[in-house]
Structure formats: structure tokens, C-alpha cells
Amino acid sequence: MALSENVISRAIIESYSAKLLSHLEVDVAMVGGGPSALTAARILAKRGKKVAVFERHLAPGGGVWGGGMLFNNVVVQDDVLDILDEIGVGHKPVDNAPGYNTVDSVELASGLIFSAIKAGAVVFNSMAVEDVVFKDGRVSGLVLNWGPVQKLGMFVDPLMVTAKCVLDGTGHPCEVINLATRKAQIKLDTPTGGILGEKPMWADSGEVSTVENTREYFPGLFASGMSANNVMGGYRMGPIFGGMIKSGVKAADLITKALESN
Ligand code: 48F
Questions:
Q1: Ligand 1: which residue has its CA nearest to atom 31?
Q2: Does some domain include residue 242?
């Protein structure tokens, strides 16, 4: 069979269009494909929710790939090993340090991505979120543009998707909550009503607060991972990832509850 260039192009254009069209209206729209959002995406998709993840870069996985200072291993605590086992990611105990394990960061990043997609979440890579849809006092969706268009500063109007819940999983900059507070002048569910700002390194505290700070901060708008820590003034923790994974589990539970109570 002689291959047709036109068939190849048409197959991609039609299948991609179908995928995008079927995700113009979702249960959960996630911004950023870091470890916390990918964990939440996998769990929510497994529960039958319609989940789309929008990641600005070509490769989802966020801060996982780089390990610690490009030494491409990360550390996780014992209490997330069951989750790593569930998604088939290997781990090794650290000698003479009970409770600590190392994980190959490339295996963890790819495992989180693959398991989320296999569970039914759809990842749109190279798509950046530049604004939120804000209706009737609620964050109701996302405004999208191509990652490279945003990076080049091209003036191109965006497209929009609507969602019952939005998760800010953008990591340290908490981009979505930042822009929502700035543009919609919303008051967050924080002591000041605004973003408290991330604190410096304290691994132990940061790991705990990442999970505690995973919350709904405004109707329809949730935050996980380092984004939640920035909003609520938590410490950073560096290349240890148990808290990120547990934050994703908590985000999935909170969003499930929100979806099922409406
Ligand atoms: O920062 P990131 O990995 O998210 P996380 O789940 O995990 C944090 C850790 O990686 C690490 C840490 C752990 O110990 O401190 O930092 O909080 O991933 C965030 C993802 O969001 C994407 C970004 O490219 C990255 O992959 N992102 C950020 N802003 C946008 C975005 C945006 N506006 N639109 C789309 N994607």
C-alpha cells in the first residue's frame, strides 16, 4: 500500500478536532500538567469525570523531569508508594534513612502522564491558559492559546472552554489564581482575601502545607501543589514529591465532592 500524505494529515486534523470539540465543555479543566494535577486528573477520570489538562509546554510533567538540579532522581516518602505501585513506577529505599525512597524522575513524569491518559483524562499540550471564563460570580472555564503563540507575544485572539471546576496546578507562580484575582478582583478564601505568597525552603513544613493548602479558593477555582502553597503562604520543599502526589489525591476528592453536590 502506497502511503498518502493527505490521508496522514487528514487523520490528524480530524481526530484532533474531534478531541478538542468533545472537550469544549468538561467537568474539570486543569491548568498545568505537573505532578499534583496529573495525579488529580487520573483519579477524577477513573471516577468517570470528564477531565482536560492544558499544559503550556510540549511535555507535561512540570518540575518532575529535572529531579534535583538536573540530577534526575527525586525523593518520595513511604506513604505514597502504594500510588506509585498502582501506576507502575519503581522506587528504591534510601540506605539508612527509613521512610525515604528515590524514584527515577523520567519514570515518574512519564508514569504520571501515561496513567492519567490511560484513566481517560485528555492532555492538550503546548496550550497555555491566558485567562479564565468568569460568569455569575464563579470561575466557569478557561481561555486558551497556543503555548508558542503566548511565548512569542503574538497578538492572536484565544478560544475558550467551559468547566464545572477549574484546578490551578501551575506550580510556583499560581498563574490562574493570580490572574483571576487581578482581573476579576475576586476575594480568595485566605486570611487577607489575596495571595499570601510562597515562603522559602522548609521541606518538612512545605510537604504538610502543600496538602493542607489544597482547597477551593473561590467558587469553581481550586489549587493544588505549589500553586496552593503560594496562595496560602506555605514553604517550598524542593525535589521531594510525596506532598505533590497527596495534594493531587486531595484535589480529586474535593472536586469529586463539588461535582457531586451540584
Ligand atoms: O510546577 P509543577 O511541576 O506543578 P506542581 O504539581 O509540582 C511542583 C513541583 O514540580 C516542584 C516542587 C516539588 O517539590 O516544588 O516545583 O505544583 O508544574 C506546573 C505546570 O504548569 C504549567 C507549567 O508549564 C508546568 O508544566 N503551566 C504553568 N502555567 C501555565 C501552565 C499556564 N498558564 N497554562 C498552561 N500550563
A1: 32
A2: yes
